[in-house]
Amino acid sequence: MMVAGLIAPITMGIYQPAVASTSCSAALDQMRTHRVVAGDSLDSIAIAYRLQPSTLTRFNPGSSLSPGTDLQIPPFNGMVVNVSPGESWQSLAERYSSRADLLFEVNGCAAELPGRIFVPGALTTVASRPQTAALPGYPLSEPAGIASSYGWQPHSTRDELVFNSGIAFAVPNSTEVLAVESGTVAFAGEQAGYGLMVVINHAQGLQTRYVNLSEVTVSAGQSVAEAAVVGRLGRDAPTFLYFEVRTNSAAGWVAQDPGKYLPALELR
Question: pTM value?
Answer without folding.
Answer: 0.59
